[in-house]
Amino acid sequence: MEPGSREADWETLRELARDAMSRAYAPYSGFPVGVAALVDDGRTVTGCNVENASYGLGLCAECGLVSQLQNTGGGRLTHFTCVDGRGEILVPCGRCRQLLYEFGGPGLLVETPAGILPLSEMLPQAFGPENLTK
Ligand code: THU
């Protein structure tokens, strides 16, 4: 999926996130989540949350997404969306903003209930790979 018509792209990305959400494993929270992102080479990657009987070990949907990104050739995330069990736009949790920062950096565009925002506005003064090489 190329970033041509912005509106169409976000709608398509949201549909991919909803599809992933339909496969979530969330028996403990009852809160399925799906995510989808566009990669700079045109690929799309998705994820759903996968919980665990040991509650604290549950994996957010973004964990699956970054794992798929790396395991299908790497690259940089450019556009990201997250939906809840009703398919409505959801903000990514704090830990997941950090996961996204690693592979998208401050310029990653994130769809939020308040509109499309760069990740730099959702994770200000982020700690990232560049801090380790200074
Ligand atoms: N969750 C995600 O998968 N991603 C987020 O960004 C927000 C929270 C999941 C974790 C847990 O399985 C459920 O939503 C309720 O917190």
Automatic annotation (TrEMBL):
Q: Which residues cross the membrane?
A: none
Q: Which UniProt keywords apply?
A: Hydrolase, Metal-binding, Zinc
Cofactor dependence = Zn(2+)
The family database entries (Gene3D superfamilies) matched by this protein are listed as:
Cytidine Deaminase, domain 2 (3.40.140.10)
Identify which top EC class this enzyme belongs to: hydrolase
Q: Where is the CMP/dCMP-type deaminase domain?
A: 8-130
A GO MF annotation of the entry reads: zinc ion binding
Nucleus listed as a keyword: no
Q: What does this protein do?
A: Recycles cytidine and 2-deoxycytidine for uridine and 2-deoxyuridine synthesis, respectively. Catalyzes the hydrolytic deamination of cytidine and 2-deoxycytidine to form, respectively, uridine and 2-deoxyuridine.
Question: Tell me, which GO biological process terms does this entry list?
Answer: nucleobase-containing small molecule metabolic process; pyrimidine-containing compound metabolic process
Please state which protein family the record places this protein in: Belongs to the cytidine and deoxycytidylate deaminase family.
UniProt-listed Enzyme Commission number(s): 3.5.4.5
From the broadest rank down, the organism's phylogenetic lineage runs:
Bacteria, Bacillati, Actinomycetota, Actinomycetes, Kitasatosporales
A Pfam family: dCMP_cyt_deam_1
* Record's keyword annotation contains Zinc: yes
An annotated GO cellular component of this protein is: cytosol
The record's catalysed reaction(s) read: 2'-deoxycytidine + H2O + H(+) = 2'-deoxyuridine + NH4(+); cytidine + H2O + H(+) = uridine + NH4(+)
Q: Which SUPFAM superfamilies match?
A: Cytidine deaminase-like
Query: Which protein are we looking at?
Result: Cytidine deaminase
InterPro entries, sorted: APOBEC/CMP_deaminase_Zn-bd, CMP_dCMP_dom, Cyt/Deoxycyt_deaminase, Cytidine_deaminase-like
